[in-house]
């Protein structure tokens, strides 16, 4: 995480991970915080810059496409990193991820249409009515 956050041209891995963990917390998603941090670090290593309004959608969509697959520890110290503590929790997490991707996509589309009020409505839904108001 620290390496992905400080490499030249990279950064913002921690902030993007915090957004993912806010979603996890406010929506009670049974997924590992460490897993989300590592996925954010992996994602930002491939980006030349991060724009939170779109990258939260792209990262959630990546997680969805990968079906929350286990991942190798990039440092090689812990082996495989599991997304959830059980199969039942993974099913719940995938369902909540599907909803999150739909909401993040609607917010993304609204920003592209320059409708920030609608974007804020969907970000608020994404983050369990805890996102700052559009005023």
Your description of this structure?
The chain is an all-alpha fold. It is 61% helix and 3% strand. It contains six helices and two strands; from the N terminus they run ααααββαα. The protein has a two-stranded antiparallel ribbon. Strand 1 and strand 2 form a beta hairpin. The longest helix has 26 residues, at 87-112. The radius of gyration is 15 Å and the shape is globular.
Features:
single chain; 135 residues; mainly alpha; two-stranded antiparallel sheet; 6 helices; 2 strands; globular
- Tally of individual helices: 6
Instruction: Kindly estimate the percentage of residues that lie in beta strands according to DSSP.
Output: under 5%
Distance separating the two termini:
34 Å
Largest sheet, spatial ordering of strands? 1-2
In short:
The protein is built from 6 helices and 2 strands; from the N terminus they run ααααββαα.
What's the helix and strand layout?
Blueprint: H1 2-6, H2 13-26, H3 33-45, H4 52-65, E1 71-72, E2 80-81, H5 87-112, H6 116-126
Antiparallel strand pairs: 1-2
């Amino acid at each position: 995480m620290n390496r992905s956050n400080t490499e030249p041209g990279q950064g913002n891995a921690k902030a993007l991970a915090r957004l993912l963990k806010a979603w996890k917390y406010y929506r009670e998603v049974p997924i590992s915080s460490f897993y989300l941090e590592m996925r954010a670090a992996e994602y930002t290593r491939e980006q030349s810059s991060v724009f939170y309004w779109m990258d939260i959608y792209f990262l959630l969509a990546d997680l969805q496409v990968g079906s929350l697959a286990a991942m190798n520890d990039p440092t090689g110290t812990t082996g495989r990193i599991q997304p959830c503590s059980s199969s039942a929790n993974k099913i719940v997490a995938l369902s909540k991820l599907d909803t999150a991707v739909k909401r993040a996509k609607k917010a993304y589309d609204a920003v592209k249409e320059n409708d920030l009020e609608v974007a804020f409505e969907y970000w608020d839904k994404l983050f369990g009515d805890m996102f700052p108001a559009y005023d």
